[in-house]
Structure formats: structure tokens, C-alpha cells
Amino acid sequence: MKLVFASDNSNKIKEIQQLLPQDIQILSLADINCDVDIPETAATIEGNAILKANYVTEHYGYNCFADDSGLEVDTLNGAPGVISARYAGDHKSDADNMDKLLAELDGKNNRNANFKTVIALNIDGEQHLFTGIINGVIITEKRGENGFGYDPVFIAENDTRTFAELTMEEKSGISHRGKAVKQLVDFLNK
Description:
The protein is of the alpha/beta class and 190 residues long. The protein has one domain: Maf protein, CATH 3.90.950.10. It contains five helices and six strands. It has helices at residues 10-19, 45-60, 94-105, 168-174, 176-189, and strands spanning 2-5, 25-27, 64-73, 112-123, 126-138, 154-156. A six-stranded mixed β-sheet has the order 2-1-3-4-5-6. Strand 1, helix 1 and strand 2 form a beta-alpha-beta unit. Helix 4 (168-174) packs across helix 5 (176-189). The chain is globular and about 50 Å long.
């Protein structure tokens, strides 16, 4: 089976391909000659996943799935949330986003947060949603060399290492994206 993953993020594509069974081949946006920066204008993580999946289905006719993820910090009323990738500006700099987050949390005791991923799957004329959430805390300084996004400042509950200190396999086994992809795989296997 071939499915388009409505993403141009090579890190996400690798992470998800590793989680899927061998008989499911992922095609990226580049593979279907889609070079459009699909607008993410929804007010929610779910809404952006749906927008991206629907764009590919409507414009290219493929069965596809799209995800949107966000970091939700309790003391910041859920921010950065839906704008996690653009938190420090439209240039989408992971380092700038983390620096802004750490500055906003400076001196705050409540550093509880969660990562949330929603996957919208458009297949055979139907849409299905899968949600994964991992709770944890934001630490005060960046640690680790792996991963991307906010991984160097997020520690999942019941762990002592940041997501950036985990191997891709370890992270995929517990992450928000891993949980959502597991639901997707279980659905596709039925």
C-alpha cells in the first residue's frame, strides 16, 4: 500500500516510516510533485491536520494522511500549541522557539507540558482522526543532540532524559507521534 504523508519534514517522514509496517510505503509531498506550502490556518492542531490531508486529497487525489503537532505548556495556557513551529516567528527556527519558551518560563515553578499529535487519514473517501499525547515537563536548559523541535527541553513523565537524549527508536516508542501512528497502523491493519 502507498500512502502520501502530507509533509516535507524529512525528520517526521523518517520517524513515521520506521513505525509503519514494511508493506506500507510512504510518499512525501515531493514524491507527488507538491511543492506548495500547504496553509495551516486552523485554530487547532486537529484542524491543521485535517486541512493538510484534505488539500492533498482534493488537489492530487491520493489516499493520504497528515499530522500536526504542538507543545502545550500548562502555565502558558496551552501555548505555544497550534503555533509551536512558528512560536518565535515565521522563519520556524527550533533554536529561537526554544529560547523564547525558556525565557517565558524563567522563574516559573509549574513547567508541566504535553506534546500532542493529531493524524488525519483520508482513505477511500473517509476521514479518520488519531490522537497521541505524552505528558512531561520543560527543563531549564537544552540537553541532547537527537530529535528536532522542542526535544532538547522536554522530558516525558517517568523519564530523566530529554527527547533529544533518546534514540529515534526510544522516542518513537513513547512519543505523542508514536502513539498516534500506532493507532493509524492498527486501523490500517484491520
